[in-house]
Every structure is written in C-alpha cells, then in structure tokens.
C-alpha cells in the first residue's frame, strides 16, 4: 500500500486508503466508490468531500465508513450498502431480496415506450417478477395516464416495490401483489413487462461476485439452458395481452432466437429488439394479434 499525502484522519487520507483497499479487492472505479461510501458515512454530498480534503472525518463517520469499506471490499453491491440505486429517472430503495436495478434493463423501458409511439397510449401495465418495481415505475413515470400492477413471488419484494411507488409519487397508479408469475392475475393488459431469470444454472456461480454472492438466486437462475422462465411466460402472455398489446421481455446475450421461437409457438409475433449500451440484444418486443 502506498503512502497517502494527507494527514491520517482527513477526508483525503481516508479516500486514498480506501481507494487502495477497493482496488486490491478488484472493485472497478475504486476512488469514485470510496467517495460514495465516505459521503454516505458522513451524510454529505460527494462534492463536499472534494472541497477541502484536509477536513477531519468525525469519529462516528469513521466507524461507519470502516464497516462500509469492509463490506464493499468483500464485493457486497454498492446499492446494498447505500440502500438505494438510480434507475431511469427514479431513485429506488434496494434490498438483498431483489436484483439491483441495472442500466441494461433501461432498454426494456425504452423498447416499451417506443413500441407505443405510433400505436396509441399505454393504459394498463403488468410487470411480472417486479423486484424493486423498476420497470413498471419507470413506464408509469413516462405515461401519466397509465396504471399498473407488479407481481413478485417474494412478499418482501412486493412490499419494497410498493414503497418505491410511494416515494416516487406513483402509489396512486401502481399496485403490487405477491404471486407466482401471472397465476394471481385476471384481466388483460396493453403492456406486459418482465425481467425474468435467464442465466444458465451452471453459469450463476461464475457471475461477478456482487451478483453471484449477494443477489437472489431465484431471480437469476433460468434453468439448465436459461429459458425456463420464457417457456412459462410465452404460454401465458396471449391470455394477458389485449389484442395488439405488447410484451417486452429482458433477454440474455444470444437468447433472442430461442425466445422468439418460443413466442411464435405460443402465437405471439416478435416485433423488434432493443440493444443495451454494450450493443447486446437486451429487450425483446412481442405483439399479440
């Protein structure tokens, strides 16, 4: 570990030392993450830390920061440590009972909004496996006339999503239920969203430590070929969608042809796919005719 120039108890010294710890642990962007953790421990903004690196860190914040740093060096997700994550235009409460909302999943929101640009407004929305409620709430935030229902197998996740709806001013247009996919649902929807588990079982332990060690396996493991959830979803989607309605499913790398084949076999028409920032097909749009 190299020496840090700032005095031992200063903001600058803590950031320097923490950056070294996180770098050694294999964390990407260690200095930025160190700033995020210290700002959280000191209940201030990151820019406040940069104003004068010589400021001494109060002892309560030192204790809190040390705990946060140990957990992040063990590769616990930053969203678990902060208790929140940004998604689309929203700030969402996070928890180990759900997946951490990711930027790649914003492709699902983009695809959903684009799918209705020329075909009319979005009325009723269903989000299957809602987790934090990220997909549903992002769409509702963009569509003031829409209402929606989110379903999750885990009651703690459904409760978390309901809190996120409330804190983002969307509680009046969103309801969250505990259920096994669509078994608790009657009626039809203009738009169905889902980010189902799609990782092959054998590949789950090989994911980055933040995911493999700390995120719920139930939300990751898609069976031996990663397609188990899509088999169930494509069977029920024709009964859930209004005529001309759309389903937008998040998919894994290389899964588009297989999921499209399952959709066609169920009487659904693949319409388009949206790529994530890495250029990977990430959101598949299906239509009910």
What does this structure look like?
The chain is of the alpha/beta class and 289 residues long. The protein folds into two domains: 11-74; 84-288, Rossmann fold. Helix content is 39%, strand content 19%. The chain is built from eleven helices and nine strands. The chain has helices at residues 11-24, 30-42, 46-51, 59-73, 78-82, 106-115, 134-142, 155-167, 209-214, 228-240, 256-265, and strands spanning 84-87, 90-93, 124-128, 147-152, 174-178, 189-194, 241-250, 268-275, 281-288. The model has no long low-confidence stretch (mean pLDDT 93).
Summarize the structure.
With 289 residues, the chain is α/β, with parallel strands linked by helices.
Describe the secondary-structure layout.
Blueprint (H helix, E strand, L loop, with lengths): L10 H14 L5 H13 L3 H6 L7 H15 L4 H5 L1 E4 L2 E4 L12 H10 L8 E5 L5 H9 L4 E6 L2 H13 L6 E5 L10 E6 L14 H6 L13 H13 E10 L5 H10 L2 E8 L5 E8 L1
Parallel strand pairs: 3-4, 3-6, 4-5, 6-7
Antiparallel strand pairs: 1-2, 7-9, 8-9
